Amino acid sequence: MSTKERRERERAELREKIIKAAEELFAEDGYKNISMRKISAKIDYSLPTIYQYFKNKADILFYIYQENNGKLLEVMSQISTEKHSNIKKLKLMGQAYIKFGMENSNYYELAYMSNAIRYEDELIYNDMDSPGFKVYKLLLDTVKGCKLEGYFKNVDYEITAQCLWSGIHGIISLLIMHSEFPWKDKNLLIENMINQLIK
């Protein structure tokens, strides 16, 4: 490995370390309570070093949103191209969304439970070209497809999509925030929730 390649790898590793530390701190103590100084202290790097990678904490937050929603978009896009009925795709999307939320609980809490982006005026929430809204568009298109297959009759497709999202969000939030609750069988709970919502 050349010196240049090693430096690039080290920069990428430090960038990822900054992002991970910020995500953990935002989730633990609340976005508003975290400063760039606290992030630098967590990873034991100087503040000027952090500023070489991100101009402020809003810049870090934007990156976290884009990166995580981009991963979710990849998963949902893949499901949307599979050769299944739309109702099957919708169930798979529900399962994938729950899996994403549980595997990325710090991000999920930050983005969907505290909605930290609302604290930064320079960050646009309702950017229709953002990965997050593209995921929502996939959901809408799939629900539309389900209506063509005879499901969700006499109900507005966007209301249906938002109801489904709300229900799935609820179970993720409960499982994250109340992990100590004696859930009987989480997998069975998730399966039954999706089957009740999407039928």
Write the layout of secondary structure elements.
Layout (H helix, E strand, L loop, with lengths): L2 H27 L6 H8 L3 H5 L5 H25 L4 H18 L1 H9 L17 H18 L8 H21 L8 H12 L2
Helix pairs in contact: 1-2, 1-4, 1-6, 4-5, 4-7, 5-7, 5-8, 5-9, 7-8, 8-9
Organism: Clostridium acidisoli DSM 12555
GO molecular function, one term: DNA binding
Protein name: Transcriptional regulator, TetR family
Radius of gyration: 19 Å
CATH topology of the largest domain: the name is Tetracycline Repressor, domain 2
Which series of helices and strands comes N to C? HHHHHHHHH
Number of domains: 2
Give the N-terminus to C-terminus distance in angstroms.
55 Å
CATH superfamily of the largest domain: Tetracycline Repressor, domain 2
Helix content: over 70%
The CATH architecture name of the largest domain reads Orthogonal Bundle
What's the mean pLDDT score? 92
Strand content: under 5%
How is this structure best summarized?
With 199 residues, this protein is mainly α. It has helices at residues 3-29, 36-43, 47-51, 57-81, 86-103, 105-113, 131-148, 157-177, 186-197.
